[in-house]
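Reading a protein record of the kind used here takes only a little practice. The record below shows the convention in full.

——
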Amino acid sequence: MRRTAVLPRPARGPAVPALALVTALVLAGCTGSDDGDSGGSADSGGSDDPAVAGAVTTAPDAARTLVPDADPVAAAVSTSRALYESSDVAVVAGGGDADAELLGAVAAVGLGVPLLLGSDDPADVLGAELDRLGVQTVLAVGDAAADLVPGGSDDVDVVAVPADAEALAEATGLDLAEPTTVPDAERAAAVAGLAPDALPVLTAEAPPAPASPAETAAEGSETAASESESSETESDASETEPAEPTGELPEVQRPEALEDVVVLASGDAQSLAGIATARAAGAEVLLTGGVVDPRGSAEVVERLATEPTVVVLGADLAGAPGIDWKLDTVATGTQLPGGGQLLFPEHTLIALYGIPGSGALGLLGEQDLPGAIARAQQYADEYRPLVDNTVVPTFEIIATVASASAGPDGNYSAEQDVETLRPWVEAAGEAGLYVVLDLQPGRTDFLTQAKQYEPLLKLPYVGLALDPEWRLKPGEVHLRQIGQVNIDEVNQVVTWLADLVRENDLPQKLLVLHQFQVRMIVDRERLDTSRDELAILVHVDGQGSQPAKQTTWEVLHRGAPEPLYWGWKNFIDEDEPMISPQETIETVKPTPELVTYQ
């Protein structure tokens, strides 16, 4: 596991010893010199030249730094502490003022300085960070932002500008591009896309203001008056003086941009200020699109595999359970067929079921290996126009086959050798297929058989299926009764398989539970769904008429634990009739994540 640092939350209050401790924790190993002559900062003492302000960026010492603050003000401070050693200038925007935050982000990225947020919280989190940075001038963006800058220091000048593009351009000298209206859900992405040479004026999309009943009733009667006053109002508006900044901002020399530092965030608006600070420092920002598991993004997996310094931003992502081991997995760069390291909802699996070399138990064995791969791809192609996610062709290979005879080991299950299956498994993986190994254990238990296939289950594209129909009690034989399994035996497999995934830094692995009667999995409500290493799926594989299959589908959904995914089986000969891919997607609700053909 790589070294991970979790930034302590910003000190709340003015106590000097606490501030000194926080600063020591964050700044250990910083590259700046003790005499204050660092980076782009310039001392104008003894010179008639105008003062030039500067800033010094610093990459975290640890390979990973977690910023798990839920409070946007604290998160902004923590990001500043992670990426900046000092800065003569800082931008402060009023927290909760969307336009001020967006324009503050534009200013921060343009100038190369941190964006911090003000609040009316009496705890002086902002003041402590301004002191640590050595800020001499604050650019306060927003109508009330200047009031939120802590007082008590005669050495800090405040340049106040309203949330107005012209005023900001005048105060900063930045060359701003055309205005862009940003929907609320896209604010973080818009800030992540900012660059010193790409500074659009970002404005928040205003929600429509509802009209009151009185306003609606009076609308008609006021129309004439409004029209008569229109020209006068427009004249007054045209004479209104543009908003101007108060105070003068010094020239700012951009700091050296950080190299090979990636800031990872979900895209939640609470992290907007931190994202702006990251871009101001020159760090690369990757957003997970609202997903709080970094394994879900193929782009993130590909980038983090190059081993950059990583800062994880936001309580939803940095504070997510298991974030350390998930980042370890991401760093391997290994991806599932179809991309990323999470199975669902990113993918839909379309599978051929059976055993290599025999067509008696399903479509898989009706042709040779190349033919089976081509057939799986053909079936998958039929679903691609029907769903929005990535369709992945799949093999479900019966690894242990229910047997009419006890066999040498007396368990009524014929286990195929790992090396017999390996050519099919590896060829499927090379062709971009996912593979599921199906167990029909007879009188032995599922865990015992699963362990026999550990060498194949260590492959990143191989999952496991448990088929309780073929799980016998002592004295039972196949086809005289339908088997069943207690949930404790299933949970043993869950624990073992999840541990295997984590210990080997594998992508999420599929665990399929076949079921077409409630009694087949006893106490299913106690299924352990807590392990994010696995995607557990109930495969409803009854056959017969469509109304009967739909009833079984509905019944098995009742009382199901969460999270749980679902599979549907189309029987070519036994269904009455078998439905088409389009009918499968349109009529089976919720839409299954796995569709198998037998």
In short: The longest helix spans residues 213-238.
